[in-house]
Amino acid sequence: MQLFFRQFGETGKQPIVILHGLFGISDNWVSYARRIAMEGFEVFVVDQRNHGQSPQSDKFNYLALTDDLFDFIDDHEIEDPIIIGHSMGGKVAMRFALENPHLVKKLVVVDITLKAYGPQEHHIKIINAMKSVDFNIVNSRSEVETRLEAHIPEMRIRQFVMKNLHRKGKDEFEWRIYLNGIENNLDQMFDAIDTITKFEKPTLFIKGGASDYILLEDFGQIRYNFSNAEIITIEGASHWVHVEAMERFYQLTMGFVTGEPSWYKL
Q: Which pTM value belongs to this model?
């Protein structure tokens, strides 16, 4: 599968590959990617399958997503990348690093861990909200957001969802995401990574202090599979830690990818 991607920075510099989460899109990471590219990195931000401008498929699971990442790195001849993944993207990144440790230099996993997660009602709520919009009767972005508000009162989450809205014509809109493919395979997005394999290269886990995706009880499993891992909490941030604590997130990841001494104290 040929994934859509955005590229920033100078060709030949240390590559960084960024993977968004469920319902995300490469556009969510453009500001961060541009900023970190200015520090001497070549940054690739992909749309994962069924998201953004990448192809749609009824096959949607971590095996397929991990294979997509392998093909992307191989097709673009990306050598020794640093991989950054948030949520679903973090799980793809973990699987890829555990299966292909020789292909990864460093790993950053944002607010996700290896365990299985139970059904997440807020994901179902987002799908229902997006499917409730009748594009035959809306004529503006504000009308779409008004209809979403009935299902998603949280402005931050609505704005996140609205990133998927695409204008087809003057007064024509569509969701640039394959909702049926995601909905029909949603349970598989909460599967565990169950392996005794270890990734021994530098790894950074960033946890949102107000998020329950990574708990203290998960630290042991993280450090077993990622024996050279640091786990840093950004207090007060939710699951969307890279958005809510943008500057702290940038400081931590920048220090980590550059190997600056005492980066974790920044």
A: 0.95
